Amino acid sequence: MTAPVTSLCTTASQVNAAEIVLEPTGVEKLVVQALFNDRGRLVLARGPCTSYLDQPSVALANGRIQIRSHLSAQVGFVVNGDCAGVSLASWTTVSGRPVAAGGAVRMEDIRIDSVDDPDLRSILQNSGLAANLPRAVQLNVRDAVQTMLLRSVNQIQATMEEFEFQEVAVTGARLSMRFEFKLVGR
Question: Which of 24, 30, 79, 125 could join 84 in a cystine, given CB atoms 3.0 to 4.6 angstroms apart?
Answer without folding.
Answer: 79
